[in-house]
Amino acid sequence: MKTADALKPRQASPVPAPAGPAAPRIFEDICNEIRARLSRGELKPGDKLPSERDLAESFGSSRAAVREALRNLERGGIIEQRKGIKGGTYITRANPTIVTQSLNDLLSFGGISVDNLTEIRGIVLDAAVRLACDRGTSDDFDLLDASIDRTELLTEEGRLEERQLQLLEFYRLLSCAAHNEVLVILVAALTDMVLKLMARDGVGQRATTLRTHRQIVRALRAGDKAKATALMSAHMEKMHSHFATAARHRGSV
């Protein structure tokens, strides 16, 4: 791990002080500057940041402001504090669980409605199907079929909790077939939220889901984008109705 040269005191310009009551606090300026340097590639995952004292000198601020900025960046998953001989403050690797947790928190506290969740999930999965049709390989589609086979087996054996997880694995594999890392993160986050909704509202699996999944994979193998997207769209509309009914029932009991 190397010390981040971009934040060495001799190279950095002080962060200007707030001009008035409406200006951002100093620690927010520091956070924004570190994020900007990440965006420009001056800082990279694995880089070790200088000490609080050096950062304060670099930014022309107090150590208290630097400390608050580091706490804020750590909460956002941008940095991590390590202890021990190789301890210090490091830029973290990308962590998709942060996106999942943030969205789940919004759902838990009522910041996201079921309608909005199912709507955006349909949009994201439509994009996944389109990209998978263009970029997916035979190996990708084999994994999707194998996932469906596994779900059928779990259904026959009555292992319903495992079946539910395996059923949702289909969507992760679909996003992988699209070969877009951001899409994989989005689908994983939305799928996790759906799983929690199903548990909260007691939503069961629809009997036609596996058949629809089979049809989608066949359309993907054939390169029939129109059919694959139409199947996914119809499937998502039915799922939307399924969740809405469960949510209304939960609100009436």
CATH architecture of the largest domain: Up-down Bundle
Helix content range: 55-70%
Classified by CATH, the class of the largest domain is Mainly Alpha
Give the mean pLDDT.
81
Number of domains: 2
**First-to-last CA distance:** 56 Å
**What is the CATH topology of the largest domain?**
Four Helix Bundle (Hemerythrin (Met), subunit A)
Residue stretches low in confidence (pLDDT < 50, at least 5 long) are 9-23
The CATH superfamily of the largest domain bears the name GntR ligand-binding domain-like
Question: What is the string of helix and strand elements?
Answer: HHHEEHHHHHHH
Whole-angstrom Rg = 23 Å
Strand order of the largest sheet: 1-2
Strand elements, count: 2
The main sheet comes to: 2 strands, antiparallel
Structural class: mainly alpha
Describe this structure in words.
Helix 4 runs parallel beside helix 8, helix 6 packs antiparallel against helix 7 and helix 9 (209-221) packs antiparallel against helix 10 (225-252). The chain folds into 2 domains: 5-91, Winged helix-like DNA-binding domain superfamily/Winged helix DNA-binding domain (Arc Repressor Mutant, subunit A, Orthogonal Bundle), CATH 1.10.10; 96-252, Up-down Bundle (Four Helix Bundle (Hemerythrin (Met), subunit A)). Helices cover 67% and strands 3% of the residues. It has helices spanning 26-39, 52-59, 63-75, 96-108, 114-135, 138-156, 160-177, 181-201, 209-221, 225-252, and strands spanning 79-82, 88-91. It has 253 residues and is mainly α. The chain has a two-stranded antiparallel ribbon with strand order 1-2. The chain has 10 helices and 2 strands; from the N terminus they run H-H-H-E-E-H-H-H-H-H-H-H. It is elongated.
